[in-house]
Design brief:
binds adenosine-3',5'-cyclic-monophosphate; 664 residues; five-stranded mixed β-sheet; five-stranded antiparallel β-sheet
Length: 664
């Protein structure tokens, strides 16, 4: 009988056998056949052989049959043996057609996520080769091609790549490798990240750290005016059917959007106030639904949502706003962004009478002027350095006080007086040091004060300021980098303070004691994990004006000298600052990084990598940027990334972070 069967019929018969009943010859036949199947042709012989032993034959008779739906749990991977299928996603409809030899269903298995699309048969009598999840993971997890590409309408929309370096909690099904987004269209990346949000009935939902990366960098490739509609689009308002499954799917999809929004608000806090589109989106509040009263600032309980959901399409519109209505509260309550910090503005007038003002760090020149003179008066703000080089500041420039060079000062005068301005005497630098006072202070106290202040500046700075700074602030309307500039300026202040104090000390013995004291201060700063000021002090000491004080250095105890030399080695820039990087790798966060190097690294990545790859967002670049800094403040960051909706409100008030340096 066998010899009379055609090859197709023979193969079908073999495939229909239970895998455990296939003989060695059967496996050989299947294996031979797999050589011609596009989806597996690239795999090694041994993998194809293993597949031959586990493939299950599955047929479906009717066009229009739904093989599985978006949001379902993923149990298998499919290869199309005969026929074709449509790939349909919510909100977009038909995005791709897959034909004989192509495969689908790997995404849910690789990411341990729900199905990203619905698969519907395009024709009658379709045949599939199915590999169940466990077999798929066992056989293909490690050998399968490292890249997964998804297409829509013939164009690639998402590229994922296996990364084995990061084996944290989000690992693909049962494995230590995970698939991370390399590139994609902004909308598809968003869709993918939302899919990967895991909802947990205990409220311990996890959000992939990529969501944080996405939110921190979204303005580079997706302005808020695009992000908001895209999120709205991902939020199913209408139920397409009455079945419970669909209602569940919609509910889950909506919860994920709300979670992402919560994350967004937590991450940006008050900075969102400068993003009118986002604020508008988050603040829209339609009239409350009957019986729907949320206590201020509390998220709706899941069952409340369910009730709202079951009311159907129309009311669901209310549900999203109900869920979102507390977000503005959160915006107000995020205290970590000391964005409105007041800074001292010291402005001199031509008559040398100083004006001293406390103004928000991000104040514009226009606002500074109107705080002092009547509107319309012909006054200008000028910055001038100790050499007398002056520059008139534009009315719309902001944060000018933190952007001043160390020997620059602000002056205010009428336009005709600009030429007559002369540098202040104090701009030439101090004539007397404070070595005597410093001598009285304990090095530990000085270091602790430095760290205390640095930590304030450091936490006032928002992560996104680094992104704006590196990618070019002018590209982001309304963006500020004021806190970052202030922090960078601080580095220079400390550095020159050290060098100045040493050089101004006239007495050799006292100078040697001062030098020793600064080495001790550096030591404590390092212990306190304040690498920024540690380096600032060390840079001060390595200033050539200090270095050439041979007699002073000679008087330093050899122990101090040894410590100093060891620290110098940490500053060695060779092999891309290897010594520093090794030292940092051993530190557990939170710590204050050496800011100039962090900015240099970010700039290096920025300049060496394009924002787009084949017209797709180069998301890999975005992630590598945020990876550089996101863990420094970890006390707050890890919580931020994996927050729990219910804890959100309570957390928002303690996000400022524990004063780690006090607790050691
Ligand atoms: P999975 O999420 O397991 O289930 C649906 C499958 O559709 C998905 O894996 C992919 O294999 C396949 N697919 C093909 N194109 C797309 C697309 N553009 N978006 C989502 N899924 C797609």
């Amino acid at each position: 009988l066998l010899s009379q069967m055609g090859p197709d019929a023979l193969l079908t018969m073999i495939l229909r056998k239970h895998p455990s009943q296939r003989s060695a010859e059967d496996l050989e036949v299947i294996y031979e056949e797999l050589l011609h199947v596009k989806a597996v042709a690239h795999l090694s012989t041994s993998v194809r052989k293993e597949l031959a032993a586990v493939l299950v034959f599955e047929t479906h008779g009717k066009a229009g049959t739904v093989l599985f739906s978006q949001g379902d749990k993923g149990n298998s991977w499919y290869i199309i043996w005969k026929g074709s299928v449509n790939v349909i996603t919510h909100g977009k409809g038909l995005v791709a057609k897959l034909r004989e030899g192509e495969d689908f269903g790997q995404l849910a298995l690789l990411n341990d996520a729900p199905r990203a699309a619905t698969i519907i048969l395009r024709e009658d009598n379709c045949h599939f080769l199915r590999v169940d999840k466990q077999d798929y993971i066992r056989i293909l997890k490690d050998v399968e091609a490292n890249t997964v590409r998804l297409e829509e309408h013939g164009h690639t929309v998402l590229v994922l790549e296996k990364s084995t370096t990061d084996s944290t909690d989000q690992g693909g099904a049962g494995g230590s490798s995970k698939y991370t987004v390399m590139s994609g269209t902004p909308e598809k990346i968003l869709e993918h990240l939302l899919e990967k949000v895991k909802l947990d009935t205990n409220g311990n939902d996890t959000i992939d750290s990529c969501v944080g990366d996405f939110l921190l960098t979204h303005k580079i490739f997706m302005a808020s005016s695009q992000l908001c509609p895209a999120l709205q689009h991902q939020y199913p308002l209408m139920f397409t059917g009455s079945e419970l499954e669909k209602a569940d799917y919609s509910l889950a999809a909506r919860q994920k959007v709300v979670k992402l929004l919560g994350q967004w608000v937590l991450l940006y806090g008050r900075l969102l106030k400068d993003d009118p589109v986002a604020l508008d989106f988050l603040e829209v509040r339609p009239p409350p639904l009957p019986g729907q009263t949320h206590p201020m600032g509390q998220w709706p309980e899941q069952d409340q949502e369910r009730v709202m959901g079951e009311r159907g399409g129309g009311d669901a519109v209310g549900a999203i706003y109900g869920e979102l209505s507390c977000l503005p509260l959160l915006i107000m309550s995020r205290v970590s962004v000391v964005f409105f910090t007041l800074v001292l503005y010291e402005i001199s007038r031509p008559d040398n009478i100083p004006i001293t003002l406390m103004l928000p760090v991000n104040t514009s020149v226009q606002e500074v002027l109107s705080a002092v003179v009547k509107p319309g008066a012909d006054y200008v703000l000028v910055k001038m350095n100790s050499m007398g080089d002056r520059a008139q500041l534009k009315l719309d420039s902001s944060a000018v006080s933190v952007g001043l060079g160390l020997n620059e000062r602000l002056f205010m005068c009428t336009s005709s007086q600009v030429e007559r301005l002369r540098p202040l005497k104090e701009q030439q630098g101090p004539e007397q040091g404070t070595a005597d006072a410093l001598e009285q202070m304990c090095s530990k106290d000085v270091a602790s004060q430095l760290t205390h202040y640095d930590w304030e500046l450091f936490t006032a700075m928002h992560e996104v300021e680094l992104i704006y700074y590196v990618f070019g602030r002018s590209k982001f309307p309304g963006a500020t980098t004021a806190n970052l500039q202030r922090f960078v300026r601080r580095f220079n202040e400390v550095q020159y303070w050290v060098a100045t104090e040493v050089c101004l000390c006239q007495d050799l013995m006292k100078r040697a004691a001062l030098l020793k004291k600064f080495v001790k201060i550096a030591s404590v700063l390092k212990e306190q994990r304040n690498l920024n000021s540690f380096f600032a002090v060390m840079f001060g000491l390595s200033n050539s004006a200090v270095q050439r004080l041979y007699k002073t250095w000679e008087r330093i105890p050899s122990k101090t000298k040894r410590i100093y030399c060891a620290y110098e080695r940490l500053m060695d820039p060779s092999r891309n600052h290897r010594a520093y990087r090794l030292a940092v790798a051993k530190l557990s966060p939170p710590y204050i990084p050496f800011m100039p190097l962090l900015l240099k690294d970010m700039t290096f990545i920025h300049e060496g990598n394009k924002n787009y790859k084949d017209k797709l967002v180069n998301f890999e670049k975005m992630v590598s940027q945020t990876k550089l800094f996101v863990h420094h403040k970890c006390g707050s960051c890890t919580k931020l990334i994996n927050f729990n909706v219910k804890a959100l409100v309570s957390f928002a008030s303690d996000i400022k972070c524990i004063s780690i340096f006090c607790s050691g």
